[in-house]
Design brief:
This protein is about 35% helix and about 20% strand. It is an alpha+beta fold. It has one domain. The chain has a five-stranded antiparallel β-sheet, with helices on one face. Strand 1 and strand 2 form a beta hairpin. The chain is globular.
């Protein structure tokens, strides 16, 4: 079960990899995005796209003093925390873990907490990655 989910997420990450850019990174992270891994500053926009594809919830934590968004999804009757931008912190790029075990102090986030600028970046990223997903 978990390996099937991981395969789907790896495939999505590969599709997004070529589309990551300064234009899709969080503005305060744009210079970091250019100098570190391609996923730097992409977490919230990617979390939106993962949510559009798999459903579930937004979650966040603090990593290296920064807010980091990822997803909690229901897959084949089990809840998992998934992060496909962890490599910006030296972690594996795709992580799948049982709900609540991926990062300490994970908290649920509401859709209304997503900034309009982040939604725009997610739309740009989806377009650049040729993902045919639209806003819900």
């Amino acid at each position: 079960m978990k390996s099937e989910l991981r395969r789907e997420l790896v495939s999505l990450r590969e599709q997004l990899e070529a589309a990551f850019s300064v234009e899709t990174a969080q503005p305060r992270q744009a210079s970091r995005a250019a100098s570190l891994t391609s996923s730097a500053g992409q977490c919230a926009a990617v979390a939106i796209l993962v949510n559009r594809i798999f459903g579930g919830n937004y979650v966040s934590t603090r990593v290296e003093g920064e807010s980091h968004w990822f997803n909690r999804i229901l897959f084949q009757s089990n809840w998992y925390d998934v992060d496909i931008t962890g490599d910006q912190y030296g972690l594996p790029p795709v992580q799948v873990s049982e709900m609540g075990t991926l990062y300490p102090e994970t908290r649920l986030r509401l859709p209304e907490e997503v900034a309009s600028e982040t939604l725009e970046r997610a739309d740009r990223l989806a377009l650049k990655a040729n993902l045919s997903i639209t806003r819900k």
